[in-house]
Write a structure and sequence with these properties.
8 helices, 209 residues, two-stranded antiparallel ribbon, single chain, mainly alpha, globular
């Protein structure tokens, strides 16, 4: 609806959408405008939403196999209203479920790039229903894949392992999750751990690319 009061708390302090900043102002008008345009005039989304960064976010998440997000579980994101240009920007959050991590029996390395999301995701569905935005989204996918389609990322992963190895060995909390050992960290590039960690990072990326 067009009334921003529809987005206010409805049971005590529970909110359908929670403000993280400017709480005293209690202003849901930018969110109200975004949702209203999304449902009634989606061809005007560029007037309220930074389309480029939003589509890039969708593209990167799909390639990384990051399903714990808006498109699949409807969570782990913030919306920032920038007063300088009046646009809303997408801020992603929580990236532990990526690179083949799985709790659903799904092989995320082969999931269709254009059929990733669950049903009832209006921002994705309405945005990509327009050929221009759909083409732009696929161009971002293509650009990222072209950048990944070299051996450079594997060398970079190996460098990260070398950089972090000392700290991992000194981390007294490391083994408290799933009984991880230092050898699991070293093997984690190329091999899965088992359980929900079904693929190594490079193993996942090779299959995804």
């Amino acid at each position: 609806g067009e009334n921003s009061e529809n987005y206010y708390p409805y049971y005590g302090d529970d909110r359908p959408y929670e403000l993280k900043t400017n709480i005293d102002n209690y202003d849901y008008e930018p969110l109200t405008s975004l949702i209203n345009i999304l449902h009634h005039n989606p061809e005007s989304l560029e007037s309220v939403l930074d389309i480029k960064s939003t589509l890039q976010y969708f593209a990167m998440n799909i390639l990384l196999g990051s399903w714990d997000d808006y498109r699949y579980l409807r969570n782990n994101f913030y919306l920032y209203h920038n007063p300088s240009d009046g646009l809303i920007y997408w801020i992603p959050y929580d990236y532990d479920n990526t690179f083949g991590i799985d709790w659903f029996g799904i092989d995320w390395s082969i999931r269709d790039l254009n059929n990733w999301h669950n049903n009832n995701r209006p921002l994705v569905e309405r945005l990509l229903s327009y050929p221009y935005y759909n083409d732009l989204f696929n161009s971002y996918l293509d650009q990222i894949l072209n950048d990944l389609n070299t051996s450079d990322w594997y060398t970079e992963l190996q460098n990260k392992v070398s950089l972090l190895s000392g700290a991992v060995q000194l981390d007294t909390y490391y083994s408290m999750d799933y009984g991880f050992q230092f050898t699991d960290f070293l093997y984690g590039i190329n091999h899965g751990f088992g359980a929900h960690v079904k693929k190594g990072v490079a193993e996942y990326l090779n299959e995804r690319i």
